[in-house]
């Protein structure tokens, strides 16, 4: 009985956080290890289910790195990289699209629905929700069908949220003519959070957060302001794949999202821990 | 960090129960010790807050025994009892009404609102919600302004629930002419649960539940069917103040309420324990 | 038959006034003698019923002077006064609250419902509708639980009005922590009229209105502008209990209430006479 | 002041009737003298305005006898009659339609709007609201464009009522091909009351009601059941133009209209007198 | 089969125009020959039906020239003209009103309903939709009951459009006292288009449009800006009955109507041709 | 100009059909050649766009035969067939799912959106819309992840239709555990039509319809009743891939779908021809 009461106490402790996030939208970018480890995948979706039940509106954006590589291998398509971006021919794009929409997204939707979430899979092509163009600003050189977000139309997402569905979004954009573009999932999440005027953007990664010294976990930076973050990019403390994550946070913050987080997705229930406890984990970037 | 993750696990464990009760109405009768012990009072209202945040619609009905006695004393009004019912003159009724509506109800509403629930205090006189008559059927003799429920009009309660308020109801009824009646709060809760077609009726008491032998807690009866309950009243195993509680459950069950519970209100978070764990506590009466 | 036709003519004469007030909100402060004389009480509520039926939305605020004094006597609590304000300890406040909410309000609700109004009793504690603080601005010295209005949240009142209920409000406020405050009912009525952007505020009193010479009824002032009213307070022509009434009118007028009235509540149907005839009675204060 | 208070008392006396008819639909057939005497016309419309303001939904159906005759004369068209029905060629029908829709209806609408009712003129041709066929059942012989009601579609009327308009209906029907038919206005009113499931049907006439002896006003029949009314038609006590009035009442009663009345339209405010006083006037026919 | 496919191709060609006008309001003035030739009348209404089915909201305003003259003749009323305006006594006005509302409007409504449009006939007197005054500004001298539009209240029209009815409006206005005014139908159409903020105003005439040389059809002016149109009135290239048409267009354009057209109503399906093909016909006036 | 008027006439001819299908749902199965020939694909989607604009609600279900085979080849996966069904291992199912959802569906959605339809891609896994089980009833032997429909939940489709989106559905089902099943697209279309209580089900094929003699196009059967269709299956006149098409029609007809069609999808605009002309094409099966 004592154990039962302790359980009840823990539910009660979460109350103030439920109150704070009630009826707010939270955009969650879900990628890296969390997507290949089946148990972590289930753990993340359980967190999403709980958010839904306590009145939060979660929107999930996923990446697809390893699955894409795996598919390209099966098709024996070799691709070159330029500064971390995959040079993407139309043939490659078709495989990427199949992997993201027909495999990663569809598997996530299956798992989510079997956990009792009313999940619906979407891509930026549905209702031309994510209008994209060839990546130039972010990518410096033309890379084929690597895209950057031109505009997110939140109508379809909002009608899903209003009908109590959880949208799970594949990071594929489209132009008006119907060409597909592969877009960095972090940036898609940032733009969606901005378009939905979400309360929070959470990017799950394979690290503890932003580290001053990438070799030393004890150098985790807990909080950053936009200006500080920009400085650290300039100072090359923030490098590589962390740059689009930080940029996604800045995009979101500049359009009325309140808080953005870079979290360790390898940790069980990192979403719940961030939302329902005082001990924020990972790095929080704010205005 | 380990402790944090255990907390997250406990939230996750509650998920299937949140799912089950999402958007359902639960009527809670709140009386006895839970009303005099300030800590228990807060604990019950915390539970109610949590129910509200996870999408359950709670309706609270309270009693008022000790506060009524205390008020009558201050007025130096002595009252006689007949078979457990207080013989209630108009003068006594006025004090009872002041105690229930102007003290017990108003204090509960205050506490609930300070905990962040949008609570609104009501009595059966508002919109003539609880039509009552002199108690005859239940009471055998005429006892003055002791009433029994004639009909509950759920309109006002439903409009409160739809607007996301938590109604807190004092067990005072009225007749068409405007006379007030003091009604047993358990019976009021049963009738309200019936009128609202609630999912669950929970009666908080000062005992563990229904005991075969009132002296021996190990004889707690976990489950009873309606017929068995009626038999135990006839056999005088269920006696005294437990009779209206059991009758309230039967009233509710006969009008589409699914489950009814007689719970130990002296236990911290008994409401959450009953709803969010497998180990039902107290006595459950079902069809 | 001729008499019948005269009756019909009188109904017809009221038409232009029905047109003017259709679907408008009117806040009525109800106090003094009108509350102790049973016949006057019924007469006021009949007026309210008629307003409701011809499409006006009445909101009633009541005081409670004599009932409060009576209750304090029964509890043998003696209280001191400072410049007309009762010094209110927590113990006194509890009796005041019981008297206002558990006796005056509840009796008015009963009477109103038996006349066919769908009345619901409220206090400022419901949904923390009237946030209050210790009276300092208006009272000069700290007087215990005598409060002044900090803010009125009209949400609950508006949802009542939209559902066709007539709210009857006891002048008890609350702070965020749940402490209760006794507030001058005239001021509460003024603040509620302001928050609801009511069409009209009507304060029923025990006098003919504002008199130049309180001893001479023929010196009734029919109309006053805000500036004139303020001047007459400075000149001590308006004194005593009339000051908060005039201040309530000014509060309401400064927030888009169109007309405010101080009426003789001892007169049968003074509300109807003011609204449905050309002969305004009492004193009207306008911008 | 005493006179004022008597006025207020009369308003108060009407309260129970307001309560009874609140939000109910009342269909009023308006014809005969009430339509030629300007003062009576205004008096009827004032009654309608008052009904509207106290929450009743009036629907007006008018006849047009004298205006039609007057128009036919101006066109120098002579017409024959068969058992009280005018034999109606297409040419005659065109004049009838112009008189009913372009003169009687339009004048009533003007007058009503200038009194502050939101009146909208309609005929059975709008949205093919009144489908009609050549009168055979009621008329025995074919009479050209004299019609009888086939079906009333209440959609347009209901959308008018929901938007708070007062529909004023000319008794012109149409077939699917668009031919117009002149229909007895009493029968149209009866069918509309039936289709709207109105609370009351009121037919204004040029007599006191149904008289046992048409020469003797003291023989007014106050109440009739359907069966009695049918018997009196058979016995030829009810004859001539009174027959379609009685049939209209029967049609309405057989489809859930509660009460039907044949009233003296020459009396000022006969509608108000019938609705707002105990002394029913004229003849009431009930189930 | 080939023919069938060509038909399908033509439907497909209309698609971009359907898209453009979907859910937009189009006001159509319908007069002159189109009103006397039965086949043209049907052709216009078929066009309107099609507009309705592809999601456009048509509102029709009609004139009545020849029918009015015909009626005045039958009444043997002679009338004088001043600068193209008929001097209109009250007696004349009554005949005009009967002709417009009781004959032209009612016939259009019949025809439209038999084609499957849900048509409802209205005049400016319904709900005092078109407030008018004696024509002075436009007419220079007082001409009796010739009116000009003071204000159009779009409420009734909007509620009709929302309920999917097609309003057909007779150009009769009213003042607050209920007097009727005959108003130029082109001007009424322009004011209604302005009040509804319509997408398009289309005036059907008996000419090809505005001609530089009225004798030479090849001088048709396809497009005009407001300023050019005003200049051509000053230069007396635009004269006579074309002046109010051009003024109606200007009125509409100055209140957010996008495009206005003066079309040849003698041409079959001129409305569809204008809306669903690239080859605009007639004269278009734009900002 | 003459040509223009002929175009207008053709639009007008389509009117009665627009009327008939206004606001009705039509389910279109789209497969075979129509899916590999880019021009036909565009032609079908143009038809869908037009349906949408004239107020019909289209729902598209697609197959994927050739694309699936093509993908399996690229993966070098060989599959056996049993009575026309592909034996489907989990590995094969994954490729099938990618091909259907990540290639066929996504390409259709792109094309549709670039034509101006608000298209959203769905599969039976979204919100577990199509619950499936291993095919036994229809398939006789266990074939791995070949499924049959257990139940279609129309909620998601209906909310899409209500928000004016055109759903494009891939024929992939799911069980409660989240396993995917490849289901015959004709049967999926039939079940969806049944669940939506659609007006019409149209199956586009590579033949003229059902032929008595498959070698002789002149033996096309224009109409069949359910009973006749069943007989022809028994008589082996209807064989092979035509059997599930006919069964899909029967499923739909037995649940309130009015008409079902097997059409020649190789023909340009076959959908429009079937809906908007009298000359039905292909085979219609009715109750």
User: Quick one: biggest sheet of chain A?
Assistant: 8 strands, mixed
Encode the helix/strand succession of chain A as letters: HHEHEHEEHEEEHEEEHEEHHEHE
The appropriate CATH architecture of chain A is 3-Layer(aba) Sandwich
The CATH fourth-level homologous superfamily of chain A: Acetylglutamate kinase-like
Mean pLDDT of chain A: 90
Strand order of the largest sheet of chain A: 5-8-2-1-11-13-14-12
Low-confidence stretches of chain A: none
Give the % helix of chain A. Answer: 40-55%
What is the largest interface, and how many residues per chain?
A: A-F, 37 and 38 residues
Domain Aspartate/glutamate/uridylate kinase (chains A, B, C, D, E, F): 24-264
Subcellular location (chains A, B, C, D, E, F): Cytoplasm
GO molecular function (chains A, B, C, D, E, F): acetylglutamate kinase activity; ATP binding
Pathway (chains A, B, C, D, E, F): Amino-acid biosynthesis; L-arginine biosynthesis; N(2)-acetyl-L-ornithine from L-glutamate: step 2/4
Report on this model:
The structure is a homohexamer of 287-residue chains. With 287 residues, chain A is of the alpha/beta class. Chain A has a single domain (2-286), classed as Acetylglutamate kinase-like (Carbamate kinase, 3-Layer(aba) Sandwich), CATH 3.40.1160.10. Chain A has 10 helices and 14 strands. The first copy, chain A, has an 8-stranded mixed sheet with strand order 5-8-2-1-11-13-14-12, with helices on both faces. The termini of chain A are far apart. The mean pLDDT of chain A is 90. Chains in contact: A-B, A-F, B-C, C-D, D-E, E-F. Chains A, B, C, D, E, F: Its EC number is 2.7.2.8.
